[in-house]
Design goal:
Radius of gyration of chain A: 25 Å
Distance between the termini of chain A: 24 Å
Largest sheet of chain A: 7 strands, mixed
Number of strands of chain A: 24
Structural class of chain A: alpha/beta
Largest interface: A-B, 71 and 71 residues
Oligomer: homodimer
Number of helices of chain A: 20
Low-confidence stretches of chain A: none
Strand order of the largest sheet of chain A: 17-20-21-14-13-22-23
Helix content of chain A: 40-55%
Chain lengths: 561, 561
């Protein structure tokens, strides 16, 4: 094995051991600080300037010979209102997949420790690059600066490390060799020497999304890479740069360790000439990770039959309010949840079920309309300071989402209208506050379809039983990645716990402080369960990694040396 | 949790711990002896009589209310020449699936230890019942008595225990609870209490086969059961009894532990009115384990899209002969491989690649025709004693296989003709010796299709490079569960090792003693890899169990007690 890769493995061995302990304990742990203060001052302060220097230029990556088509693409526009002007070589997709297949044996034969060492080194360098990656995430996804840094940097790296850790755990359970010695009564034993090889499935295609170009990409990328599969990342045409920067780091580390850099490659495309379907059906592509719409995720699952598909799709994230202790604390918590990144998280609540007869609080009974108004007021107050609002909302990634806000107004009674905001630093930024609608539980057409963006519904139900029945039905049909619930009764809490099990959705109970239903912490929270229509896999667990490789053994009679 | 199940878990805890060590070490280990001498004399001697008492009667199993259709089926005919006459209630399949879905929460909520305890107790009782199960396996599959005992009893139980062990390993890595405490600088930490639940996917359908009704059924059955999924076993109409006996034991143990017995249920059907497709498409069925033809396995994978499908299908098992030390030892080994259970193992060699210029041996060069003749002679000699022949060959399970022998004669030049034998004890038994044909490597139509049964081809190639190229092509296209290879050159052995990795097939190198390419030992040998078209899963590894459940978590703010 590469001695450089071996050094990388040794350098990060302690981090790996801590990560192994973390996925078992599931307490709080991270090796990648989420506070900018813990990064060098130069790294933080110089990031905007370094970002500026990348604009309006080609972004160079390694490509294997014979795949350069001579064409390039690049159509990224910052949701904050300017064109990035970065261009990327557009390789011949078929030739690239073929070339990646041909480097598979090199990466496979490097062995588990070398591969994991390379992955851990890539993650460490990505961590150091977090301030720069934050700039690229901000100006492609539209995330506000702090979120772009945290979710695009350390939290994404956490999820990558988590995947590497599960991959290590799954692979290292298989010994590289064994002696099998079967007694034969009075005869001498049968003795075989056996070898076990971790064999990757093939080329791994990771289809990145525009809203979380690193957070949703790293799990699949690192799970596949650690288990020996060359990884081709298909960036979203609107969010290529953070992915390209990631691929560049990976290629540099691979090259330093003596491997072909294009074991990790980028394939960009354009809205006009998408390449994902073609790649997904390539017979050499055996693994696909996808984050995006249910329509496309389902297409992949139905058509890319030669591949294992790990998909995170749409869903109807829900909150059920039965009763609360402190209504103000609850509505403040919900206000943050609904506002964060303008509802463009796959974990943002879309449906809030409230009994039409109102709810009990520590300050007495509160009617349905009052609850709705309290949520609206909390959002309004939370976003009343425009600078703070912009720092939470970020910008709307796509024009389609912006248009959806307007189109959704007619779906119910407006409790809180969405308003456009002007960003102090970026006046052309697409900034919009949440739209809150009231609907009756019977109005299924309104709230049973994912309305991606800052659009949520307060759904009037008969009572909590009805709320739970509706949530059960909607999540069973449409899926969900998060479920929040509020109750002051322990017996009702247990019923929520069982509902969560029945529809396989993670439950956040009585969130009324500094933790939000739409936040998910690596090493502790399983993001999605893989058990309802919103996702067929969880980030991350053993199932996410264990089928990305097979074990090939050989055996022969033992002969005394 | 059930205190009875808890006792079961404690009783078998040491076995589980040993099994955990065994899957990590992969040396020889089993808790279930394969020698009849280690079973009580009464259990062994009385087995034929107890089997006789089961014949020509209904076989009773527990069924949930409302599923009894009043109909029964039963068309088993022993390959040794008599009708079993056992009848089985044929439940309403849709109602049964629905009833099993309704007991899912009961089994889920029992918890990991209770479920694993019940599984281990079932296996222990199946082990004690091995002599009886051997009778049922023999008279449905046609296996000879010793194989029916070993493969149908202890070796099948080994594979069941292996699956339970992997399931335990995967589930026990997830803690049932955790405290997450995130520092907040000078503020107090955020503290959450979290719970994690193992949640099964749904009803598990295990489609049993006629040749190994227990060995190929136990892995899926126990993997699903341990992970919380109610298991519906669809027996092959020709081999119901061993499965029914297994289900009966499972139901007894479940009932003793206080669970609904029909958490494990049997659904029998008939050749004329098969029920598998209907069951496989039921929306409540989320897991399917299947052993059988590629045609049906592929149908399941293509159509049962709501389920995870684990399939073991057809393949072209191969042996490549480059050079040998002792030709006689090699041909004796191959003679056993080809004769055992008349080639009706999913691991039996179908294609033996030999260079047309012959091979080197320690006694000098041996021509192609001489190698072919030596294999034929070895088979002939091995089977010259009719009693020994019958004790190895067993009987041909189905008439279709018997007919295939005759139909295959024209596919090549007969090196050794198949002959019918008369079984001393069962004169009507379908006993046939292997058919060995010579074909040219170009005659792809002959040997590239699975010819299930005692039909093998000695394929003439240009040289070992050509043998490897053909094997690579055939296995990539058709799959294989075993690859044997013979060479005296270490450099060639390494090339075989790489070929095995490239096409993801287990390699047995230079088998010339008491171990055979078609034998696979639990806890040490991974049966199939899941990486070529012969199977999409391996028995057993983490991937075989890890996706049979999801983890559903809940979290809430910690409040000091």
């Amino acid at each position: 094995m590469s001695s450089v890769a071996q050094q990388m493995f040794q350098r990060h061995r302690e981090t790996l051991d801590q990560a192994l302990a973390a996925i078992a304990d599931r307490g709080f742990w991270t090796p990648y600080p989420e506070s900018l203060k813990q990064y060098p001052d130069d790294a933080v302060k110089g990031a905007p300037q370094r970002f500026e220097q990348m604009l309006r230029k080609p972004f160079a990556l390694s490509l294997p010979g014979g795949v350069d088509s001579g064409e390039s693409v690049g159509e990224e526009v910052s949701p904050y209102g300017f064109e990035l002007g970065v261009s990327y070589a557009r390789p011949d997709a078929d030739a690239l997949v073929s070339a990646m297949g041909s480097v598979l044996p090199e990466w496979r034969d490097a062995g588990v420790e070398a591969r994991v060492g390379v992955c851990l080194e890539i993650l460490a360098r990505l961590n150091a690059l977090s301030p720069d990656i934050a700039q690229a995430v901000m100006h492609t996804s539209g995330q506000a600066p702090m979120m772009a840094f945290q979710a695009g940097g350390p939290h994404a790296q956490d999820r990558g490390l988590e995947a590497v850790t599960y991959a290590w755990q799954a692979m290292s359970q298989v010994p590289s060799q064994a002696r099998w010695e079967k007694p034969q009564g009075k005869h001498g034993p049968l003795v075989l020497d056996k070898r076990y090889h971790i064999v990757p499935r093939g080329v791994s295609l990771v289809v990145a999304c525009s809203t979380f170009p690193t957070w949703n990409t790293y799990p699949g990328l690192f799970a596949s890479l650690a288990t020996g599969n060359p990884v081709l990342v298909k960036a979203h045409p609107g969010a290529v740069l953070p992915v390209a920067m990631t691929v560049k780091v990976a290629q540099e580390v691979l090259a330093e360790a003596g491997f072909s850099p294009w074991i990790v490659s980028l394939v960009p495309d354009s809205q006009a000439a998408p390449v994902t379907k073609r790649l997904a059906l390539d017979s050499a592509v055996k693994l696909i990770d996808f984050t995006g719409s249910s329509a496309f995720g389902n297409w992949l699952e139905d058509n890319a039959r030669q591949a294992r598909v790990y998909s995170e799709k749409s869903g109807i994230n829900s909150v059920i309010i039965d009763s609360v202790d402190n209504l103000k604390a609850v509505t403040q918590n919900l206000a943050f949840t609904l506002s964060l990144y303008s509802g463009q998280m796959c974990t943002t609540t879309q449906a809030i079920y409230v009994p039409k007869g109102g709810i009990q609080t520590s300050e007495g009974h509160v009617g349905f309309d009052e609850v709705a108004a309290a949520i609206a007021t909390a959002v309004e107050k939370f976003l009343s300071d425009n600078d703070r609002a912009c720092a939470v909302l970020g910008a709307i990634q796509s024009c389609a989402t912006e248009e959806r806000i307007a189109a959704s107004r007619a779906l119910g009674e407006v409790v809180l209208d969405s308003e456009a905001r002007v960003h102090a630093q970026f006046p052309k930024a697409r900034v919009h506050t949440p739209l809150l609608l009231k609907v009756d539980g019977d109005n299924k057409a309104a709230y049973r379809e994912e309305r991606f963006g800052p659009i949520s519904f307060i759904v009037a139900t008969e009572d909590t039983d009805h709320s739970m029945a509706l949530a059960r039905e909607v999540i069973s049909e449409q899926g969900a990645i998060t479920l929040g619930a509020y109750t002051t009764e322990e017996a009702v809490a247990e019923r929520f716990e069982r509902l969560a099990m029945d529809v396989a959705v993670p439950l956040s109970l009585n969130m009324d402080g500094g933790v939000f239903v739409n936040q998910s912490a690596a090493f502790s929270d399983f993001h999605a369960t893989g058990g309802n229509p919103a996702a067929n896999a969880s980030l991350s667990n053993l199932a996410f990694v264990a089928d990305r490789f097979v074990v090939v053994q050989s055996r022969r009679h033992h002969t005394a040396a």
